[in-house]
Design brief:
Blueprint lengths: L9 H15 L6 H8 L3 H5 L5 H14 L10 H18 L4 H6 L8 H14 L3 H31 L11 H4 L1 H9 L5 H21 L2
Helix pairs in contact: 1-2, 1-4, 5-7, 5-8, 7-8, 8-11
Length: about 210
Amino acid sequence: MPRGVTTLSRQRIVEAAVELADAAGIEGLTMRELAAHLGVGTMSIYHHLPDKRALHQALADHLWSKLSLPDPATPWEDRMRDLTGQLWLAARRHPALVPLLQTRRFTGPDGLPAVEALLGAASDAGFDPAGSVRCFRVLTGFAVGLAQAEATRTRADDERPTRSAPGDGDTSARFPHLHGALASGALDRPLDDFAFGMDAILTGFRAAVAVP
């Protein structure tokens, strides 16, 4: 619904775009629909964001800007876990915006402090600038990819009347490891997935910086 506020700002446009994307998906986020959502003319949007590409960049930046910066005095592992976890949760809250986090190479000024903090944690771990970039890609790829996998699985479950019971017929005999995995319930434990993945990544990072 239009907000009924006359003053238009870039921040208000971006916040409204997030609401629209959450409700209608990224495909439903057009300049015309956004203007209607705000109750303004389409050209009013272009005064703040010149095109859809700029809007998408602003949305990615908006998500990064919501991350709280950890204390730089805390251990680098804790900072990585904290920032990566916040990014994962942001992607889970706004699954429609996940593709933007995957395709926007650089964020705008509002999101750069969080990017700098994550790179700084990698540097404090002992990585050089190139290695820090690789750490950044691994961590962000893990957070966003995990959120996307969860969103995809949720949509698939919503479209399926019932989940097939593992072990029907001779399935358990033919595929015992698959049967055990399904029966474990691990597919529905996203917090465990995140914790396990972060532990594995951080273990790898420690090993990488320990190599002379």
